[in-house]
Design goal:
Layout: H1 7-24, E1 34-36, E2 42-44, H2 45-61, E3 66-69, H3 74-83, E4 88-95, H4 97-102, E5 108-115, E6 118-126, E7 131-136, E8 140-143, E9 146-148, E10 161-164, H5 171-179, E11 185-187, H6 192-200, E12 206-212, H7 214-226, E13 230-232, E14 247-252, H8 255-266
Helix pairs in contact: 1-2, 6-7
Length: 270
């Protein structure tokens, strides 16, 4: 992709995104009004300003590679995805907009590079905590430049901490998770990109989500996979196409734990 080759370019990309987030996102935290989009989700001035900033700056540094952003129409997104076989940025300029608009301090910027139908680079920035999660396909994952590796971490479900967004799951499954969970405790933090990255850092061990978009998961899921995590979907898709269709997500730290988690999710209620 037009000069984007590996760690050197990633090291150029990180400060670019950090600076943009400081100026376009953090400067507006607790000082911005939100409005509703057609699907009921929120949008703020920070979403739009961050997206436009990165469109401009990425084009300056890596010309010729287009950017697919959340704050575009579906027709624009589809045209970019179909025409971006050689390389395409995929951006969520503010993942956790409702948190951001409410003053709840958990949100992120998520940027991925898609090439040849797969994500080859991921960057998720938590600007409030100054945590930047990055990954290159086949080369590893890092938190602020330090390697992330889940190693052989494994164990039973009973002692784990889980993240789940109950409102986006089928009602029977959401009820089971709420009333007879196999884990020790449940969280929902409101940023899909950080869900994946906190899994990659070992802060939680189980994950299930019923509906997330390409710009939500592209970067964070690569970080988790490169850290050694295991993931799939509720539908057990063998191959997940790189398209705009929302996807479910199932993930766990540890191969044995992932298998046990999948088995529990497949069980039919009595």
């Amino acid at each position: 992709m037009n000069g984007m080759t590996g760690r050197g370019d990633l090291e150029r990309l990180v400060p670019l995104v950090q600076r943009a987030a400081q100026e376009e996102v953090l400067s507006r935290f607790c000082h911005v009004a939100a409005s509703c989009k057609a699907d009921g989700s929120l949008i703020t001035e920070a979403d739009l300003a961050m997206q436009q900033r990165l469109i401009t700056e990425l084009e300056q540094h890596w010309p010729g590679t287009r950017l697919l952003g959340e704050e575009m129409t579906q027709a624009e997104q589809q045209a970019l995805l179909e025409g971006g076989k050689a390389g395409l940025w995929c951006l969520d300029p503010l993942d956790g907009t409702r948190n951001f608009a409410s003053g709840f301090p958990v949100f992120s910027v998520s940027l991925a590079l898609i090439r040849g139908g797969e994500v080859v680079l991921g960057l998720v920035l938590d600007p409030l905590r100054n945590e930047c999660f990055t990954a290159l396909k086949g080369e590893g994952a890092w938190l602020n430049g330090e390697p992330l590796s889940l190693g052989d971490a494994d164990g039973e479900l009973a002692g784990t901490l889980a993240i789940a967004d109950l409102k986006r799951l089928p009602s029977p499954l959401a009820c089971r998770l709420a009333t007879t969970p196999p884990f020790a405790s449940l969280r929902s933090i409101g940023s899909v990109a950080l869900d994946w990255c906190w899994l990659a850092a070992g802060r939680v061990q189980l994950y299930v989500h019923g509906r997330q978009n390409l710009w939500d998961y592209a970067a964070g899921r690569l970080v988790f996979a490169e850290a050694g995590g295991h993931h799939g979907t509720l539908e057990d898709e063998a191959v997940e196409p790189m398209d705009l269709a929302p996807r479910s997500a199932v993930a766990a730290v540890g191969a044995q734990r992932f298998g046990s988690w999948q088995a529990w999710l497949r069980e039919l209620p009595e």
